[in-house]
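Shift notes (night). Ran tRNA-splicing ligase RtcB while the centrifuge was going.
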Amino acid sequence: MKLIEETEYRFRIEREGAMRVPGIVYASRALLPGEPGDKTLTQVANVATLPGIVRAAYAMPDVHWGYGFPIGGVAATDVDNGGVVSPGGVGFDISCGVRLLVSPELDRDRLRPRLRAVMDHLDRAIPRGVGTKGVWRLPNRAALQQILTGGARFAVEQGHGVARDLQRCEDGGALDGADAATVSDRAVERGLGQVGSLGSGNHFLEVQAVDRAYDAAAAARMGLAEGAVCVMIHTGSRGLGHQICTDHVHQMGNAMGRFGIEVPDRQLACVPVHSPEGQAYLAAMAAAANYGRANRQLLTEATRRVFDRETSTTLDVLYDVSHNLAKLEKHPVDGQLRTVCVHRKGATRSLPPYHPELPADLAAVGQPVLIPGTMGTASYVLAGVPENPAFFSTAHGAGRVQSRHQAARHTNADALRRALEQAGILVRGSSRRGLAEETPEAYKDIDAVIETSHRAGLARKIARLVPLGVVKG
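Came back to this:
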């Protein structure tokens, strides 16, 4: 594989073999995957073989090995010219994403004497862990079907939030095209009891404070004055989304031969977007996306109740955006505006200023791009920029450099907790192993990832957030 350094923050994988387009990797040399045996860049090249792919197979600064697609991968296929959709380009946690809540009145100094009480109550109020039941006990499958089609909108209609929440949510809180009939009985069973829960792994709820504003005017527009208290929620569609991915990878694997499709990795199973199998996957994926958005909406309300009781303050939604999704979008390709299926797997949508999908009060700034760091390190808010060449996409986090098994084997959870608390970060974890798996040493340097995103023209820095307390699955 030939890797060419085009700029300090952009590398090119030259086309060879079955590649239809080049690979473009946004990274500094320090962020490039480099461990012996690491297949991440091979996965980028494999994605470049997909039928209908246009421009390039892109890798974001936090890229690392994943299922089929690398995590931190972006690819767009031309829907009307044989373009395919691949569940591996979305991942198992469909619509995993980030929501950021901001207090318009509470700052770090005012919170400090109440922080421990807030964290203790969040510990009890936020369900998390493998298989954990959520805060919304659905009475029957009909109620779940309304979530699958209505997403956060349905949650708000049922009294779980306010209308303004939806104005600050991608797609207004619900992705069109969802069809509950395309969701298997097994997926429904897994989803019935988990609405309003974090799950496990790298999912979290974190109380934060604005540490630095890089663009004071844009930060002020977003309510991110230095010292302001925020809450970041990172979770997705739980077992329901995982089952939907599993179901459709299997179905597409069986169907590819009928369309004459061959891929270098069976984990890249795909079918044309316009095929019955492609349409069924997009409808089920949209249903999972809506489940994920309702999930974050329920967790928002649980968090608000704690802050109202313990600090007598409110929390507003700054933005809610997915980083595991495939969407049909219009983009220029070879001088023509085309409908493309943009796969973003571990990549955050990053719309530029004045994009028609932005809330009117944020139009001049650009879309808030929410990028969490690791437990104990900073998180960031960026904003979309007009010149982004990767279909308005950027990084979604720090990116793992150690597997969960490696991290757990080399980390003492009790020592990690003590170190975090000595640094002023209160930790409320559901298991010792879960904490060990998420040690900061298991991830890339979030500051380097953000700097690369900024300098590569994928987004621009607005504010840096630091953790005060974290609730972990």
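The longest strand covers residues 460-472. The mean pLDDT is 95.
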